[in-house]
Amino acid sequence: MQDSTRGCLTMTDPPFRVDRSVIVISGRTPAPLTRRAVILMLGVVLATAACASAAPSPPVPVVDDARISAPGFTFARDTFAFPNEIRARHPHAENLYANYCFVLARGLRQFFQFARFDPAAPKLDSAGYVERVRRLGEHAPWEPPRPPDERIIIPGYRNLREFSLAEAAAVKAGLGGRFWTWVHWTNWRVTFPLLGQHQPRIADEIARELRAGRLVQLLVTNWPVVELNHTVVAFAYRDTMEDRVFDIWDPNDPAVPGTVTFERSQQRFWATRIYDTRPGPIRVFRMYYSRLL
Fold first, then answer.
1. Domain that holds residue 272
2. Per the confidence metrics, is the pTM higher than 0.85?
3. pLDDT at residue number 7
């Protein structure tokens, strides 16, 4: 089995690595962390812990075996046709579209919330489609969905699956680069201990967001095992008396839905079906749902 981190993010891949208290950027002189930077980082940790221990909302009711999905979302229609590729599986390939999982998951939400497809309208050239996708990317994913008449029109195609299959190069160019998604400060949460009822609360928050019609982007990790540091998008869930089962879109495996399960008895998440990842316990965080988080 290949490390699924190779398809998304590792701290030893270019453009950076971490060497004790020094962050090394490829091609630059190492810079030790200053005392001020260390204090700032500690402040961020404390702020994160405070948020994690805030008073929870009332739990979402358990409706046994009833499937709840984000209204209007269809997996076969509203997802990208191409994958985030895994570099370890293509070690000698050039121009590989790898380590873009954060870009694709964020982009999926942006298309769902801000785009409208018009198959009857004349098609654009590649540059025109790149410009439309870039305009979508100017909307933060935590913004509320736009009404149909305010959405960015993608002409000539019926849906995202069809569009991204025919215009893959333009879509990739329009979605932009991956560097800033790698170094976003919230990614470092995977190294911090979890406090209190954090994971049960996350399971409730995901369910609440889906009930409200919003897709939920998740950071999933089994750190300190160097296997999974990845992002997926939850689009539906169902409850059983034992578990809450989330259906996910995985950028590494766009053809079929994956599954992340919250086990009530153990108060933990389980990687039931995440591409190239062994089933086992994981930690889950929400991503890109506010300016800070």
1. 4-65+182-286
2. no
3. 54
In a domain, 35, yes or no: yes
Residue 252 lies in a domain: yes
CA separation for the pair 105, 28 (Å, rounded): 30
The model's pLDDT over 23-65, given as tens digits with 9 standing for 90+, comes to 333 344 444 545 555 444 444 443 443 334 344 566 776 665 6
What is d(CA 71, CA 203) in angstroms, rounded to the nearest whole number?
Answer: 19
Using the predicted structure, report yes or no on whether residue 200 has a pLDDT greater than 60: yes
What is the tens place of the pLDDT at every residue in 128-138?
Answer: 999 999 999 99
Rounded to an integer, the average pLDDT of 238-267 is: 96
Mean pLDDT confidence for 103-129: 98
Last residue of a domain, one of 181, 205, 225: 181
Same domain, 118 and 191: no
Asked if residues 249 and 210 have their Cβ atoms less than 8 Å apart, the reply is no
Q: Tell whether 94 is covered by a domain.
A: no
